[in-house]
Amino acid sequence: MNRRTLVKLSALGLVGRPQSWPADTHQDQVAASTRLLPWSRAGETLRLAVTRQSAPGPAVLYVHGATFPTALSAGWRMAGVSWLDHWQGNGLDAWAFDFAGYGGSERPSVFDHAAESAPPYGRCDAAASQIATVLAHIRAERPGVPIHLVAHSWGTLPARQAAIEHPELIARLVLFGPVTTRDGMPPDPDAPPAPAWTLMGAAQQRPRQRTGMPLALPTPVSEAELDRWCAAYLDSDPSSRQRRPRSAKIPNGPGADIDAMWAGTSLVDDGRVRQPTMIVRGEWDHVTRDADAARLFASLSQAVERRDVKIAGGNHWLHLQPRRRALWTETLSFLRED
Length: 338
What we know:
This protein is an alpha/beta fold.
């Protein structure tokens, strides 16, 4: 249970096993299936888009963050290969899903009304319930095999909650760029209530490839790659063409959760997490700074194993940057441990 902070200078990291996905893997070489899984909350049933790239080994479920779905994160192919492809190619049964209100999942009825008509939709507790629904489905499909959880950014909050509530379903936990509690200013009691949903367009997403990076360094990916990603992001919301400029409508619950955490409110009791847990982040991650990682590492006091892995050359969007293969390698190594 010793803390381990590693700055990786090689994309091969420490894994000794070969990675079987070549750089020129194409979509038609990957067998994938998607189904809609019903999830009910507060009298409303929505169908969650669940994707699987099957393999005979242990299962791993990816949980996306606050502003974009799986297809734009673990499912995004750069140089022809995605993180899900990488898992499948290394024998892991790769699963992912979109939270309600994102990507291929159904939109809640609150999206049909003014944003100010309801409180933020999709808070941590509701999101943890969605994770549990998907985990139960995976267990039914793969009885007896270990199921690992890999979550990014805000998604690490409901992932930790799911790990606490369903320890029998989760073997190992990877927290990539996790959100942690900070000692921030409490909210202004006179401020208007946060809306149910919000809009986000390419103008807001595009600069995030540089957030936290030294100004002297170039953007990690090309303008063409950013154009491709932003176009796909806007296409992930069928309603985006109704607005000018185009924008994706997303639940505001994740944003409200982050605001609460950074104002000093703890939404998850990390001391109740028991599974072996790895914190992993890029060196320029502004969401998970060194102090944030240290605080979370200390709070995971009951975890069977704890790791804090820091990867050189990336920020909070490390999984969409050239150094993503170091992230893949570290994650795969941790999930393969006994």
